[in-house]
UniProtKB/TrEMBL annotation:
This is Small ribosomal subunit protein bS6. Gene3D superfamilies: 3.30.70.60. InterPro entries: Ribosomal_bS6, Ribosomal_bS6_sf, Ribosomal_S6_plastid/chlpt, Transl_elong_EF1B/ribsomal_bS6. It comes from the Bacteria. The gene is rpsF. Binds together with bS18 to 16S ribosomal RNA. It comes from Pseudoscardovia suis.
Length: 97
């Protein structure tokens, strides 16, 4: 199996301050680095209005992360993110074909 490039976009609870948001993101990115993957770029967009209401929220903290990992690591990251109630929504896209 070989590593692929991925882009993760997550929307976190708007109540989180920047420090708590960064801590939350770093916690999940350890999943990537612990499995010999690399985190290439983290782009915190901050608090934005959602296109539509999700779970009673109209705003969220947006974060975009580019990383390189095995497909199984990416699947595990997705699974873990979906278990956390502070994460409103996630999307992981494979960047290479």
């Amino acid at each position: 199996m070989s590593a692929h490039k991925y882009e993760l976009m997550l929307i976190a609870n708007p109540e989180l301050d920047e420090h708590a948001l960064r801590k939350l993101v770093d916690q999940y990115l350890e999943t990537v680095t612990n499995e010999k993957g690399t985190v290439d770029d983290i782009n915190v967009w901050g608090r934005r209005k959602l296109a539509y209401e999700i779970n009673g929220k109209t705003e969220g903290n947006y974060v975009v992360v580019n990383y390189t990992a095995e497909p199984t690591t990416s699947d595990e990251l997705d699974r873990l993110l979906n278990l956390n109630e502070a994460i409103v929504r996630t999307k992981i896209l494979r960047k290479d074909k």
